[in-house]
TrEMBL record, chain A:
Superkingdom classification of source: Eukaryota
Protein name stated in the entry: IMS import disulfide relay-system CHCH-CHCH-like Cx9C domain-containing protein
Originating organism: Periconia macrospinosa
InterPro entries tied to this protein: NDUFAF8
GO terms for biological process, alphabetical: mitochondrial respiratory chain complex I assembly
GO cellular component: mitochondrion
Automatic annotation (TrEMBL), chain B:
GO cellular component: mitochondrion
GO molecular function annotation: methyltransferase activity
Keywords: Methyltransferase, Transferase
Record's keyword annotation contains Cell membrane: no
InterPro entries tied to this protein: Malonyl-ACP_OMT, SAM-dependent_MTases_sf
Protein name as it appears in the record: S-adenosyl-L-methionine-dependent methyltransferase
PANTHER family: ARGININE-HYDROXYLASE NDUFAF5, MITOCHONDRIAL (PTHR13090:SF1)
Domain of life: Eukaryota
Any single biological process term in GO: mitochondrial respiratory chain complex I assembly
Amino acid sequence: MPGRTRPIDKFATAVANCSKETSAYGKCILADYNNVTKDKCVTEFLKLKNCYLASAKKR
Amino acid sequence: MNTFSIRAFIPPVTRRLLPLRATRRYAVQSPGAPTIEIFSQQHKWMQKERAARDVETSRRVDYLRDEVASRLCERILDINRDFPQVLDLGANACNIARQLTLPSEDAPEAGPRGRRIGRITAAETSSSLLYRDADLPFNSQIPLTRDVIPTSEILPYEANTFDAVLSSLSLHWINDLPSVLAQANHILKPDAPFIGVMLGGDSLYELRTSLQLAELDRRGGVATHTSPLADVRDVGGLLQKAGFNLLTVDVDDIVVDYPDSFALMKDLQAMGESNAVVTREKGPIRRDVLLAAEGIYRELHGNEDGSLPATFRLIYMIGWKASPTQAKPLERGTGMFSIKDYLEKGRVGGGEGEGGENGGESK
């Protein structure tokens, strides 16, 4: 829709600034993706989330 | 027991949003096994309507449907006969009709692909999507009738009406596939083909697995985000059960690269192909899960150039309605020579032993 940025677009641009954290989190899950339990990669995820939050706040 | 029905007082658009069981008040005894509702038809209709309202975006994401419709049209060209009456079942935005007005890529000088097609009837539940391209020039180049049908599960046509039934990328939202295929068989004239293509098997497995892993890690459980799909092995059985003969089933993978997983999900939504499973989790996917899924998608499936591939597995099916004049397999034990001898002869002679008969395409 013109004249309006969709929330998903804002989300996508904010996440795009955190490629290092995204890849670190993905690697952590992939290290043993047959045995994933809840909060297996919680430290990597929190890093990613903090980066996203900071990046989203900037604009 | 409440026998009073307020159905007549509900405005038509709202009525379509309500589940059928909320408004239907008459007693029915359905023969045979009860139909299991996997996909919510109301929700699917709503998604298609919403998607088609945004005409520009909706046209932009037609790349998949146009490509698949084009490949389907090539298959129609393989059959050497005229089709005065054709039904396009689940027409979306009449993609098949538009592709039929374009010439074939193999023979651009031969004219439009639909020259042997008389009239094409496009049946679709969502009227906004169906009439989206009603003012484009291709409408005058092919005789096209648009039919808005109340539900995609019941085909409101007389028996022996059509010379071919086509279907492109809509059968994967049908709950009772055996019934719809049997109805398609019913409305075909004898010795007429059904040519369909549906998403199946491993379609979008990248998205499916990343969302599953992300939800496992973030929430400790898995919710349904992608539809269950028919497998290639099932399709042959389904067609046979519906009464089709001389079956041809084949598989084609289209891999589309996206910049990120959000672009893929946005495009799926704009196509009107979002999740419509009845038991889906209501409400949007949580941002935590989206964030996690993006990372997993990128690491698990991502290309080296940073794009994310999404696989669409297309199952093409061709079946012919039975007719006494049709070619039939010979009876057992009537073979006059051994195929073993034939194959061995080919091998000794050094030639390519073409033993098998290509039965399906020989019409």
